[in-house]
Specification:
Oligomer: single chain
CATH topology of the largest domain: Rossmann fold
Mean pLDDT: 96
Radius of gyration: 26 Å
Distance between the termini: 53 Å
Number of helices: 23
Helix content: 40-55%
Number of strands: 13
CATH architecture of the largest domain: 3-Layer(aba) Sandwich
CATH superfamily of the largest domain: Glucose-6-phosphate isomerase like protein, domain 1
Strand order of the largest sheet: 1-2-13-12-10-11
Structural class: alpha/beta
Strand content: 5-15%
Low-confidence stretches: none
């Protein structure tokens, strides 16, 4: 089967790139005062401005044809219908069912999954309300004040990101902590802040065998029992997010306090499921359901909007344009909201674990770029860290600038001084990355600063900016649970769009598993007294060096 880069439309895009490349963004904006009007999409209060990309109307027309060539709409419909589009694991991809708000059945293997989804949501509501109200007691009769979520990957990144983002909606009596790293420092530092009498542990592992998660879980159990003394008290302080009832029970957790999720829920798409229990405990089930509602609204937009008016599809296509035709290999996530400080790490997993692959659905080696390297930092912190490279670096990194118009925090003059400064920086950065600064503009600026003669000539190259750096601006009214749900689902569907065009399976992660397999081989060697010779010379050398100090 021929790959998408061999298609006539891909070749047309290659030629179009050559035609448009000599035209700068500065020139594009100067020649067309309606550029913003042409290249923005609004859905509810969410605005995507993509006018600062190296595109024309023809670019968009060609990219839409590319999407149709890849049958993006057909694949989208197959996903929502519950077909097993995760071909390597023979699974449906139905995280969208977790946030479904209508009464339409969603089928998987001939079964409507919605009754099970609703039952788990009801169970989450009962449990979270018991804990938040103080009815759920620890082993000494005290209410829970700390919740430690122990998981890894999608069982950690999503809930941690959402809880950080929605702090204004968080409980005043419960503090969430997230432990994922098997490094003992991660768990120890969380435990230092907690009291065993008032701490609830959430153990998130589908199989209840994940090495990192269970190592932390057993150490947490030891910590509790050092104070509680009686194994019967485990039931008051541990709940499980799992499907392995037998092992959960062996651990000491009451299976009544086991919350299930299903094979058709991928880890990095799981915060909408029982994996979001820590979210519900922190922000309350009403707010958690608003998060689900926001995700559902974006699902409906993705399902129904034509490609050119479809925010996730257009974001995905712009990424294809930048990655495959301009060879921009990285993408920055730049959120101008402190609450979104964990968004970039969350999206790193969502995108790079999904589309970081060189084998397509047909088992063929891909001879073009797929998933970009994602990275980023919040707001003005990033400006004073790596924006120098964004403006004048030799590597061009397209970026998403993300910003709420209104802040939850009223501080400074008139209560909005801080936020207006933030807004001004948000706007200024995208404009400066687009415009750059010409030789003449740099000269004028330097002359105004009082420099003369040779100083001017030496400074001009340093203060000249090429511009022409593509960015998207994403604005919304306020960071609410519903808005955050829309934002997360938007990126999920963007990733899906790119995966379909590249003809890769965005829902497996065999690369993650491979390293774990080797780690299991290495672990026993670290306890052997004699030197190992079982691996390559580097691996043997590292193991044997480490053993000198163990």
């Amino acid at each position: 089967m021929s790959q998408i880069n061999q298609s006539p439309i891909w070749q047309a895009l290659n030629q179009h790139k050559k035609d448009i490349e000599p035209i700068s963004l500065r020139e594009m904006f100067k020649s067309d005062a309606t550029r913003f009007d042409q290249f923005h999409i609004q859905f509810n209060d969410l605005l995507l401005d993509y006018s600062k990309h190296l595109i024309s109307k023809e670019t968009i027309n060609l990219l839409v044809k590319l999407a149709k060539e890849a049958d993006i709409e057909g694949w989208r419909d197959r996903m929502f219908k519950g077909e097993k589009i995760n071909s390597t694991e023979h699974r449906a991809v139905l995280h969208t069912a977790l946030r479904n708000q209508n009464e339409t059945p969603i089928m998987s293997d001939g079964e409507d999954v919605m009754p099970k989804v609703k039952n788990v949501l009801k169970k989450m509501r009962r449990f979270s309300e018991d804990v938040r109200s103080g009815q759920w007691k620890g082993f000494t009769g005290k209410a829970i004040t700390s919740v430690i979520n122990i998981g890894i990957g999608g069982s950690d990144l999503g809930p941690a990101m959402v809880c950080q983002a929605l702090k204004p909606y968080g409980s005043k009596t419960i503090t969430p902590y997230f432990v994922s790293n098997v490094d003992g420092a991660d768990l120890s530092q969380a435990l230092e802040k907690c009291d065993p009498e008032t701490t609830l542990f959430i153990i998130a592992s589908k199989t209840f065998t994940t090495q990192e998660t269970m190592t932390n879980a057993y150490s947490a159990r030891d910590w509790l029992l050092k104070a509680a003394k009686d194994n019967q008290h485990i039931k008051k302080h541990f709940v499980a997010l799992s499907t392995n009832q037998h092992v959960v029970s062996q651990f000491g957790i009451d299976t009544e306090n086991m919350f299930e999720f299903w094979d058709w829920v991928g880890g990095r798409y799981s915060l909408w499921s029982a994996i979001g229990l820590s979210i519900a405990l922190y922000i309350g089930m009403d707010s958690f359901e608003e998060l689900l509602k926001g995700g559902f609204e974006m699902d409906e937009h993705f399902k129904t909007a034509p490609i050119q008016q479809n925010i996730p599809m257009m974001m995905g296509l712009l990424g294809i344009w930048n990655i495959n035709f301009f060879n921009f290999s990285t993408h920055a996530i730049l959120a101008y909201d402190q609450g979104l400080s964990k968004l970039a790490p969350y999206l790193q997993q969502a995108d790079m674990e999904s589309n970081g692959k060189f084998i397509n659905r047909d088992g063929e080696h891909i001879d073009f770029h797929t998933g970009p390297v994602l990275w980023g930092e919040v707001g003005t912190n990033g400006q004073h860290a790596f924006y120098q490279l964004l403006h004048q670096g030799t590597e061009i990194a397209p970026a998403d600038f993300i910003m709420p118009i209104e802040s939850h925090y009223k501080i400074g003059k008139d209560g909005d001084e801080h936020h207006k400064i933030l807004l001004s920086n948000f706007i200024a950065q995208t404009q400066s990355l687009m415009l750059g600064k010409t030789y003449d503009e740099a000269r004028t600026e330097i002359e105004k600063q009082g420099f003369e003669g040779e100083d001017i000539e030496s400074f001009i190259p340093q203060k000249t900016f090429e511009g022409n750096r593509p960015t998207s601006s994403i604005l919304f009214q306020k960071l609410t649970p519903k808005t955050l749900g829309q934002l997360i689902a938007m990126y999920e569907h963007k990733i899906f769009t790119q995966g379909i065009i590249w003809n890769i399976n965005s829902f497996d992660q065999w690369g993650v598993e491979y390293g774990k397999q080797i780690a299991k081989q290495v672990l026993p060697k670290l306890s052997e007294k004699t030197p190992t010779h079982d691996f390559d010379s580097s691996t043997n050398g590292l193991i044997n060096y480490i053993k000198k100090y163990l």
